[in-house]
Amino acid sequence: MATQRLSALPPGRLRNALRKTLGRLPLHFVILGTCLLWSIPTVALLVSSFRDPTAIASSGWWNALFDPAQWTLTNYDNVLSARGMSDAFVNSLIISIPSTAFVILVAAFAAYAFAWMNFPFRNPIFLIVVALLVVPLQMTLIPILRLYSEVTIEGSIPIIGGNVFGIGSYPGLWLAHTAYGLPFAIFLLRNFFGALPRDLFESAHLDGASDLTVFFKIVLPLSIPAIAALAIFQFLWVWQDLLVALVLLGDPNLAPMTLQITNLVNSFGSNYQVLTAAAFLSMIVPLLIFFALQRYFVQGILAGSVKG
Amino acid sequence: MIGRAWWIPWLWLAPTLALLGVFLVYPSVDTIRRSFLDARSQEFVGLDNYEFIVDNPTPLAADTHAALLNNMLWLTVFTAVCVGLGLVMAVMTARVRYEAAAKAAIFVPMAISFVAVSVIWRFMYEIDADVGTVNAIFSELGKDPVAWLINTDAPQKPFVDVPPNDAPAPFQVNNFALIAVGVWNWTGFTLVILSAGLKSIPDDVMEAARVDGAGEWQIFRRITLPMMSPTIVVVTTTLVIQTLKTFDLVWVMTGGRFKTDVVATLFFKEAFLFRDFGVGAALAVVLMLFVVPIMLISIRRFQMQEEIR
What we know:
The complex is a heterodimer.
Chain A: H1 2-8, H2 11-23, H3 25-49, H4 53-58, H5 74-81, H6 85-116, H7 122-131, H8 137-151, H9 170-194, H10 198-206, H11 211-222, H12 224-240, H13 243-248, H14 257-267, H15 272-294, H16 301-307
Chain B: H1 8-34, H2 48-55, H3 64-93, H4 99-107, H5 114-124, H6 133-140, H7 173-199, H8 203-211, H9 216-244, H10 248-253, H11 263-273, H12 277-308
Helix pairs in contact in B: 1-12, 2-12, 3-7, 3-9, 4-7, 7-9, 8-9, 11-12
């Protein structure tokens, strides 16, 4: 069809179209080259996860591409049949979803206040929040553990399980992950909120809209690309976390996939084939989230609404 | 700004202030206090722990100078490459039809956990050219295989520790090899956020410039770059701060051996392996001090932004 359209054009336009296509070749070349370079390690991991254990240690992963005899599902079989793996998968979701939702909500409220409200010490407080980005997580764990041991409420929450609060509880872990995610989330959202045009707020306030209305009806819908990006990264960081879960949960029945995979690696020794398969299983959900949210990065959301 | 009761902003901030106070401010203050106490946090020792960092008395067990220098290397090289590459790819991918697929390909490493990243790259960097991808390419090019993570002249076997050589730490090849892994892992982050910033530039601005006959390079320099500058600042600041905290990658790849320690890994060793809480806390405080210049830059940018609004 493209050739048909091209041949219908007058010769001068055809030359222009051709030059345009050729001029774009370096663009495609650079993009595809970078994508290829970025994919090689992941492909290596994927191929290795389907290879025979003895083959992994003795020859390069690319050999498997030409030798189908090396292909096997044993590694995935070993990982999936390992005890508690499906429970750990559910636990990871129980930990990650609320932690992500809380961060977005709490940070969006704070970012709105920092961007569009006047109050004493606004900028110093914001800068302290940004400075908290640098606090190493490891540093906070011992004081938090000491604090939690005094406020732990024993018992069991229906369905999801675990203590009601403190050590060995999901709410305790949610709060910790939310707090750790807040500095980055507030920093990101405040900059996006602050970049929204001032007229938008003035006309809304003139129409008698309250802060809550402006927040939910104007600010949040306009910031969907930023919120989607934030949701992806917060979810990823919580999903990949090992350290916080290890220290604050304690109970193996509550453990997320990262903890379960680490245990698996320990019990299988340095058998990398198990780890490669487990790593791929743990990647599935973050990638699904990414693909699901990517469509929200659509062009011209802001332009459309300011005009309308 | 409209008139509000004085307490309204504080109500919007309350959950944030409570959470940050308990989980980040209180532990930080506690750490600053302990940085002036001895290894078991009992006796006041003044500035002894900070002197330890400056004097570097145990370079073999815990090389504080190498850790600080390595952190500076991460700060500059890693940040510059990630932001530069992310920006270029965000602008370039926005102009092709397979934008979503291209961004996904670069984003995928973000979804891989650090444990898996370490496995995959130890295979990539494997000294045996029959197994390690990078060295396989090197031997195809007729070069000798390189021990990317170890960097010493001593004879090597795969995954075996050897003592460090005397090269100045930040210029060792293994630090650059680690930074390459970091870039591979984090460019998806800069790309996705910069791309979101690019999308929020109204279409009509670009259209108007094109109608006025502006070239693509001019549009990039005069419109895209200035309008994306808030996002670029966010991404750069986040990365700079992230590099100050670099921990997982170094920890799982080399454990900080062969002079690859950064401040956060050294902090972890001091606090949890050597059980010297004083020095560990002092290292954490040094990390926090690094942020001061970043904060000063942020303040200036803030004041400028406020004047514009």
